[in-house]
Design goal:
The complex is a heterodimer of chains A (about 240) and B (about 130). Chain A has a single domain, classed as Spore Coat Polysaccharide Biosynthesis Protein SpsA, Chain A (Alpha-Beta Complex), CATH 3.90.550. Chain A contains eight helices and nine strands. Chain A has helices spanning about 25-35, 55-60, 75-85, 105-115, 135-150, 165-175, 185-190, 215-235; strands spanning about 1-5, 5-10, 15-20, 40-45, 65, 90-95, 120-125, 165, 195-200. In chain A, the strands form two sheets. Chain A has a seven-stranded mixed β-sheet with strand order 5-4-3-6-8-7-9, sandwiched between helices. A two-stranded antiparallel ribbon of chain A has the order 1-2. In chain A, strand 1 (about 1-5) and strand 2 form a beta hairpin. In chain A, helix 3 (about 75-85) crosses helix 6 and helix 5 runs parallel beside helix 7. By secondary structure, chain B is an all-alpha fold. Chain B has one domain. Chain B has four helices and no strands. Chain B has helices spanning about 5-25, 30-50, 50-60, 65-130. The radius of gyration of chain B is 29 Å and the shape is rod-shaped. Classes of the chains: A alpha/beta (about 240), B mainly alpha (about 130). The interface of A and B includes residues 68 and 69 of A.
Chain lengths: ~240, ~130
Amino acid sequence: MLINYGIIKFMKTLIIIPAYNEAGNIEKVVDNIIQNYPQFDYVVVNDGSTDSTRKICKERGYNLLDLPMNLGLAGAIKSGIKYANFNQYDYAVQVDGDGQHDPKYIDSMIEYMEKEGSDIVIGSRFVSAKKNHSLRMFGNNLIEFLILITTGKKITDPTSGMRLFNKKMIKQFGYRMNYGPEPDTLAFLINSGIKVDEVQVEMKEREYGTSYLSFTRSILYMLHMIYGILIFQWFRKKGA
Amino acid sequence: MSLGLRIALLLAAAMAAVFIIYRIRRSKVRLQDTIFWIVTVVILAVMGLFPSVSFWAARTLGIQSPANFVYLMMIALLFEKLLTLSILNSQNEEKYVELAAELALRCKDLERRIDELEEKISKENEQNEA
């Protein structure tokens, strides 16, 4: 919040919660935001769940954007970002529906964005902490390396799903093609002169349900990222 | 392999490359859909630049002339595209059925609720008048 000569300029922040079959987690995640972070608005984007996610949200009276079919994570985020733009939010932050992202870090992310003038702030697990040695971290390291050699910028946690966008980014992510909420878009944006920064956060493991990424999907995801960062981004027009 | 065929291959590769890069720059195509065309451009260019590749492949596969291998490659590429397009088409068809059904259900639900509200309001009005 900024206070200028008695005129209170309130910066509106929206938490976007994509949810695909998150019946076991969604209640805890949303109730936590409603009770402990009333300064933020939120929207649950139900991505055509086949379990009782939609029913739970309706019964609890959550603010729900209910997609009529499954669009995948990118489509769910895009819908949430469009909602943010439509309702004129200044900031939009992506928080996973499985409860692994703690909303307590959002304030420090916004603070950092205002202080440094960033366009995107990533909630990173590894700004000051070390990565462990697992297959998942190998993928994370590989993408970090690809971004480093193509942009010259070190993004310690490029696959983090906790990202804060400013108004300019809300417009771009909501309405342009090939702006998936993924590392290849980050690489392209950094090369287009967009300021991407990171703030240290801690994440929890999901309690119920399964992640979007299965093993085969992870391999396809990695191939997609390698192609997107190493080849595709050079054909794109900067700022388009 | 004749020089004419090699030039034709290189021309085709160049034209495909220009077209696909133009589409990418205009943001008219999704990343996933560009992979096939980039691969096609590379295959055409390799066959045009290095005829020895076609000679080797023709010999290995027992094809009489390297030119025939080039045609075989083109057919294989077209076949792959046809297959993915056909799958994509049936998926899309299924999607729009699902979308229409889901939208009809939701509209029906909204109509029901509006009817309920209208009934409630007219009842209240009647009571007030009485």
